[in-house]
Design a protein that fits this description.
4 helices, six-stranded mixed sheet, binds inosinic acid, 9 strands, 23% helix, three-stranded antiparallel sheet
């Protein structure tokens, strides 16, 4: 297979360093998928339809697609889209719903899939909103966690990698809608986002 030539797009030049290669991400995502499936099977918490796995658009899209294809249990899928306001690299905590779930989650086992936990504000908002719909259980899987950035206490049930306080892009994560299709995760050069 041809090697993808990211040099051509110039996108890779905007990275100060590569934090996680595509291979490292794939291997951890497979581990998480198995762990999550085992937990749901072990605690008897699954009904015949299995969990509703919810993708938070758009950042979680790559993680979500890889995670669900390696979860060896029945699941249903749904999508939610929220926007958080603030500067281009930090959320203000003001969150609004752009697209709600298609299905009802009352009495269902629900797993929310997010790209990164930063301040914790987005997931706190979402958990409050979805808990009010009385799911049977509600858990969160996040690919990345920046614990040092928390503004509200929040702990995801499953974390791929804990990382330092650096602004990262790739594998779904963007800056100004760019870099989402990089297969790796890298630290964006500050000159790419500082005026
Ligand atoms: P929160 O601050 O925990 O509410 O995170 C909100 C959202 O900010 C995440 O879902 C990401 O979309 C975005 N975000 C936080 N840190 C980064 C980053 O390092 N790169 C790209 N997006 C980020």
């Amino acid at each position: 297979m041809d090697k993808l030539n990211w040099e051509f797009t110039g996108m890779e030049h905007d990275l100060e360093s590569i934090l996680l290669t595509g291979e490292q991400i794939q291997s951890r995502v497979r581990e998480l998928a198995n762990l999550i499936a085992e937990d749901y099977m072990a605690d008897g918490g699954m009904d015949a339809r299995g969990p509703v796995v919810v993708c938070i658009l758009k950042g979680a899209v790559m993680f979500y697609a890889d995670l669900i294809r390696f979860m060896p249990i029945p699941i249903s899928i749904d999508f939610i889209s929220i926007s958080s306001y603030g500067s281009k690299t930090a959320s203000s905590g003001e969150v609004s719903l752009k697209k709600d779930l298609d299905g009802k989650i009352e009495g269902r086992v629900v797993l929310i899939v997010e790209d990164i936990v930063d301040s914790g504000l987005t997931l706190s908002y979402l958990l409050r909103m979805l808990s009010a719909r009385n799911p049977r259980s509600l858990k969160v899987a996040a690919l990345l966690d920046k614990p040092s950035r928390r503004r509200v206490p929040f702990q995801a049930d499953y974390i791929g990698f804990a990382i330092e306080d650096k602004f990262v892009v790739g594998y779904g994560l963007d800056f100004d809608q760019l870099y989402r299709n990089l297969p790796m995760i890298g630290v964006l050069k500050p000159e790419c986002y500082e005026p």
